[in-house]
Amino acid sequence: MSDEHLDPSHLETLDRDLGRLSTLEQATAYVSRPMMGFGIALLFVVFAGLVAALVFGQTNNTFIVVVAAAFGAYMALNIGANDVANNMGPAVGANAMSMGAAIVIAAVFESAGALLAGGDVVSTIAKGIIAPESLGTSGAFISAMMAALLASALWVNLATWIGAPVSTTHSVVGGVMGAGIAAAGFAAVSWGQMSAIAASWVISPLLGGLIAAGFLWFIKANIIYRDDKIAAARKWVPVLVGIMAGAFASYLAVKGLKKIVKIELGSALMIGLGVAVIAWLIMIPVVRRQSANLENRNKSLKVLFGIPLIVSAALLSFAHGANDVANAVGPLAAIVQASSTGDFTHAVEIPLWVMVIGALGISFGLFLFGPKLIRMVGNQITKLNPMRAYCVALSAAITVIVASWLGLPVSSTHIAVGGVFGVGFFREWDTERRMRKSKSAITGLPALAPEERRRRKLVRRSHFMTIVAAWVITVPAAAALSAGLFLVIQGISG
């Protein structure tokens, strides 16, 4: 586009918008300084306790609920600091959006997901891991949930400090299990449910990685390796955006609207199919217009994936808020119910003020402490561009939707990071395959030395091993910490 076609007012508006995001990034960097971030986080935890005191009123159990609300707020802060990086990291790493834009989008959509569609997995978190009746009294149940909440928050805090994207879902499940064992022995744990949850933890990163690798293979085979890349992109980018739109529409129909109208899975899939077709038709002229003057090279393709990547990251944040707010407020909601009614064996009703604490805590945690993990996931595992990051986001969306529909508290961390690993390992395999193919075409080329082969690895093995090790020890570490805290709490209260 030549300069005479540019409206100066548009340029001024764009400059102002970019200036605002730059200012936000500077503000984020400032509050990320340890003492400033710690101070704001502490104020939020105190605020959560005050809200609990005002809402709950003056009863014998008010102090317990206030402390539990503070623990829940602390856990929500840690979810924002650690887990949200998995949704925004790929988009930031691919330079599709700035850190400031990622923080704003994530905060808005995480909160919307928590408030509009959250709470569906809470019954599994609070009730499905241990048999509440085995704990005997509501006091023992409350102590167990308090220990689980604090232990999981401490573990995620430690992981964030050392730069490891661990699963907050794992932490909470491990915490609940450890407190249950300390309170009533191994018989208190619902081992069948634990087996299903544990299986989903193994399956979800593998599935996320395979789906991401599959989409990257599709993009490479049908767009990147074609002679006319732009023509291929005009054909297939609208299809890929349609798949993403359909997947999220089905998810929102099942979860996001459940408080208004109940939609069965079959109907939700039909809604998703309709939205997918509409999105596909809308994107055909949009992509044609975007690609009008693009050169026929890989760098040009990044433009076409930029907006779909931002939209997918936003929708994935909504799904994460709906799914993972349970980790912060599930045990808190159980404590509130047991404290107010004495009932700790039936389904948990989540009060609105509890959901608000979870949503606000996730947003505050992201703003104060999130950039460190966003950079880790986006830049330090493998090199991402908009096409690769879009594959990660799309695979994470599909896997989270399937798992949430099944009611399994899977880890969005494992799914998203598994997608990043899947993309990186596929690139290694594809690069090796293409090198072998070119060598077979040109005989007499020497084989690469082992040192050179290691240097050309596209996934950093040190990060891979660190992250997998952190995943493996999360459940036993959170369980052991929770068991110890349960005994301390019982000692203080008893």
Per DSSP E runs of 2 or more residues, the count of β-strands stands at 0
Mean pLDDT: 79
Major sheet attributes: none
**How helical, in percent, are the residues?**
over 70%
Number of DSSP helices?
18
How large is the share of residues in beta strands? under 5%
Number of domains: 2
Which parts are unreliable, with pLDDT below 50 for 5 consecutive residues or more? none
**H/E element order:** HHHHHHHHHHHHHHHHHH
- What is the CA-atom radius of gyration, in angstroms? 24 Å
Overall geometric form: elongated
Q: Describe it for me?
A:
This protein is mainly alpha-helical and 494 residues long. It has two domains: 1-30; 32-228 and 296-493, no CATH class. 80% of the residues lie in helices and 0% in strands. The protein has 18 helices and no strands. It has helices spanning 8-31, 34-56, 62-82, 85-93, 99-117, 122-127, 138-162, 168-184, 191-224, 229-256, 265-290, 298-341, 352-369, 371-380, 386-405, 412-441, 450-455, 461-493. The longest helix is centred in the middle third of the chain and has 44 residues, at 298-341. The radius of gyration is 24 Å and the shape is elongated. The model has no long low-confidence stretch (mean pLDDT 79). This is Phosphate transporter. One of its GO terms (molecular function) is phosphate transmembrane transporter activity. Keywords: Membrane, Phosphate transport, Transmembrane, Transmembrane helix, Transport. One of its GO terms (biological process) is phosphate ion transmembrane transport. It is a multi-pass membrane protein.
